[in-house]
Predict the structure.
Amino acid sequence: MPEKNQVERAVLAALERDAAINLHRHPVRVEYDHARRALILEGEVEDIVAKKRAYEHASRIDGVQGVMDRLRVVPSEPRGDGAVRVSVAAALLQEPALLNHALRAHNKGLVESLRAPPAADGVIEIAVQDGVVTLTGRVGSLSHRRLIGVLAWWAPGRRDVIVEIEVAPPEADNDGEIADALRLVLEKDPLVHADQIGVRVRDRAVTLAGVVATAEEKKMAELDAWYLLGVSQVINRIEVRG
């Protein structure tokens, strides 16, 4: 199968050239299904940056019409599924923008109601398996959907976040929506001074600019941008002046 081997080699070569992806430390399995023109990425990566960039590289390879992303992020603080579920639920329960949303958690085949407002604006359901957080339900805006995803990514121990939440009524997505959602996320991140960071989005590519005191804050702002659904690239031009 020359085409299969050619596509797989092209993907691995693209990943190898990216400094954000360390294939020697975290090997990635690449499998191409010629009949479906689909590619599978599987393995562990260092962070959300490596995960998202690997997906974008694979999507741009000739002959690939779809990518199944099974990459998992190595957690800085390993935790069991129960602890991850509790952390995600706590973050969603405490978020003011979600106070009028019903919240349910799936645990060992049972569904536990964590909050049930009498006239809920939406519903969010949480399930965690092998560190992978899956979020389902319905919310009223893309901003809510994006915020929920980021809050789940912030939970210690999560290895991936899958957001399958419906937006009803449907909203058209655009660069302005992504920029507004990112500004909201930066404002909510206690590790970031949002007023010192500028955000610009063009064709789903985010550019960050400004001045912060530490390299850690610069990195956190970039991670927040990558956590956001719909972002294809992050250009971090934030300066560190400690």
